[in-house]
Amino acid sequence: MLLALRINVLAKGYSGISLETLKQVIEMFNASCLPYVPEKGTVGASGDLAPLSHLALGLIGEGKMWSPKSGWADAKYVLEAHGLKPVILKPKEGLALINGTQMITSLGCEAVERASAIARQADIVAALTLEVLKGTTKAFDTDIHALRPHRGQIEVAFRFRSLLDSDHHPSEIAESHRFCDRVQDAYTLRCCPQVHGVVNDTIAFVKNIITIELNSATDNPMVFASRGETISGGNFHGEYPAKALDYLAIGIHELAAISERRIERLCNPSLSELPAFLVAEGGLNSGFMIAHCTAAALVSENKALCHPSSVDSLSTSAATEDHVSMGGWAARKALRVIEHVEQVLAIELLAACQGIEFLRPLKTTTPLEKVYDLVRSVVRPWIKDRFMAPDIEAAHRLLLEQKASWPLGLFLNFQLLRESKVGDGETLPYSIVFWLFLGNEQKGISAATCSTTKKPCNKHYVPQGAAKC
Description:
Blueprint: H1 2-10, H2 19-30, E1 34-35, H3 49-59, E2 64-67, E3 71-74, H4 75-81, H5 93-98, H6 102-132, H7 142-146, H8 151-164, H9 172-176, H10 187-190, H11 192-214, E4 222-224, E5 229-231, H12 239-267, H13 269-272, H14 289-305, H15 327-357, H16 366-376, H17 389-400, H18 409-420
Antiparallel strand pairs: 1-2, 2-3, 4-5
Helix pairs in contact: 1-2, 1-6, 6-8, 6-11, 6-12, 6-15, 8-11, 8-18, 11-12, 12-14, 12-15, 14-15, 15-17
């Protein structure tokens, strides 16, 4: 990714690199000849000089390099094994190879993609927990969210309705407590659209910044051949991706924070009405007690990691580079936060499925039963204590591979069609096509824009080509 982004910058034609050298670099990339680059060493201003210098080192035949054919070896040997020659640098080309924000941005791309994946699946995990804790779906009513039309909140509420719609894929669990005396649920269940929703909006905001950054020329100086000028500027400064990735870490962490509280509710018999720590013969078996401790530890660690690195700056280069972004650390710790979020949600997913065991023979909704079956295909129920780490790792892999969301596209589409029309032909408030959930780009008009009036509208939300307001 790092090499691909650097090629993208060089190809824009403002870096002062020859076409011959650029073609050589592209040939190395196409042959998967990838230089060794350490993750530490950048302050995120004047570009990622240290990491990109390691990248350039491999390109000129120095240092270590990896390819599928050779594995790790001396760069010169790896290039020879692929019939390639090291780059012989011409004037300006050394600086052209090492000045830019591609280290921050490449890690940022991974962070955004993983954050997007776990945010979608967090809704699924939370919906399953809500079923186990016998929560109500009333809090996800369209009219409630019409009064606070943040896009992320609307999307999350829609997903919850799609997963929990017992009218069209009945939940025997929901039916069993339909007439209970409970008025409302705890915030960790009731407020998922509001809490998960802002995470989705945060990811969308950060994705926009990272997308612009990875397609930008971030060299210095910039060579404007048409003007015959070479101008020193500041496009190398990593403040944009640094601030964005600090923001991403703060936002995505909340999914773990609220998940850990739901795990507590699942494990606490006074809150769940299930056996303590979700295991029979409590006392002889500790069940999910230690797994919950692990989740709490990961959440606590995230709190420290969420301290913004971009609030720090140190003067370097004899006070010429006297303000820096620290974007490299922002990117690295964002990935650590995301991994912890994935692990906490993996624990919640296992705990929710274990809770289902104590509600059998009752079944949940069809889509959530599919999620349960998926988990049970890799992790069996707990009857007695056993080594839990492999099970958590298996659930983590399901989330990493996004398998938990695979069976649900059909139910989301069905819910969309069901909510799009009512008897009198009116369009319901939030009949939005959530292409973002299904992995495609949003193709409708703005969620807050009426397709008829082209003005903000808090009642009708209609994609282009759909029914008019």
